[in-house]
Amino acid sequence: MAFETTTNPMRGVEAKHGSGHYGVFEHGAHIWSYQPDGQAPVLWLSAHSAFSDDQPIRGGVPVIFPWFGPGEEGDPAHGFVRTATWHLQDTKDTLERDGRLLVEYELDQAMTGRQDGLPHRYRAYLRAKFTPEYLGITLEINNTGENVITFENALHTYLAVGDVREVTVSGLDGATYFDKVTGETQTQSGDITITGETDRVYTSEGEVVVHDPVLGRTLVIAKSGSANTVVWNPWVDKAKAMPDFGDDEWTGMLCIEAANCRDGAITLRPGEMHQLRQRIALA
Ligand SMILES: O=P(O)(O)OC[C@H]1O[C@@H](O)[C@H](O)[C@@H](O)[C@@H]1O
Predict the structure, then answer these.
(1) Neighbours of 27 (CB within 10 A)
(2) Is 4-282 in CATH node 1.10.3210.10?
(3) Among 65, 68, 75, 78, which residue has the most ligand 1 atoms within 8 Å of its CB, making it the best to mutate?
(4) What's the chain's Rg over C-alpha atoms?
């Protein structure tokens, strides 16, 4: 079966492959569904997410650029591209043959207008490669202007987990991290377990493995072009404080984000390009 262009709840590209499902919205070039054939959904999507042009989607893979968090300019949090309407550049559909679908979106300053937080020309390109074995995501930023630009970015991936309190995350042992909850810099010792609000920016370029005993699966999160891995779960109080996040939904998700933020911000001279990639695979 070929992919479809859909409009409900937002315009985008959607496909079924066996019992699997793939989906991207043009709003934010937002990958919101990756479910390989025969598997449970790999990406988490809040049942309380707004599907509105002026709000980000809660779940899936928000594209964060050109700043991470509040940024120097304040609003909007995590940059302006996750609520921008991207342009569908291309698709390559080999679903019938091998269960694969490639979807490419682009965005540039002509589409978003001159923004205070990034008053220079840029082109952003997002490629989602859906396969039965993995989801591959590439975010490419080109400096198409005449000024040096410095930015932060991230693929803010929300993973679906059986119960976050039972999950262990390996691959970050020995890495230093900035703990956004306490404001302290720490060094990770051993695997990560989630026992409270967790909001950490690790300095790490390596692969992370999420062991999920409740769903009985292991997810391998590989990446390149990324100096930081962000691990985020809001836990009880923060979940309650977010209108687009169900009070009890925090147990079913964990963000493992491929990022370049804080000291890891990227600087591009005119004509230069940066590629951030993340691959989420079932082990
Ligand atoms: O609510 P938002 O803007 O989508 O952000 C969610 C979270 O995103 C994480 O990446 C940040 O580290 C957290 O501090 C933040 O709370």
Answers:
(1) 23
(2) no
(3) 78
(4) 18
**Token duo for residue 48:** 């309380």
Using a 6 Å cutoff on CB, does residue 238 contact ligand 1? Answer: no
- Residue carrying structure tokens 């000291």: 263
Pair type for strands 228-233 and 192-193: unpaired
In whole angstroms, what is the distance from residue 159 CA to residue 150 CA? 29
Active-site pick, 14, 26, 152, 257: 257
Of the pLDDT bands very low, low, confident and very high (cuts 50, 70, 90), residue 74 is low
**Which is nearest to 60 in space by CA: 91, 84, 27, 86?**
27
Residue 17 known to be catalytic: no
| Token representation of residue 197 | 């609000």
Domain parsing of the chain, residue ranges: 4-282
Alpha carbon 162 to chain centroid, angstroms: 19
Ligand 1 in contact with 232 (CB < 6 A)? yes
pTM of the full structure: 0.97
User: How confident is residue 71, by pLDDT bands cut at 50, 70 and 90?
Assistant: low
Instruction: Convert the pLDDT of each residue in 214-232 to its tens digit.
Output: 999 999 999 999 999 999 9
Residue 73 among the catalytic residues: no
* Ligand 1 pocket test target in 61, 64, 156 with most atoms within 8 Å of CB: 156
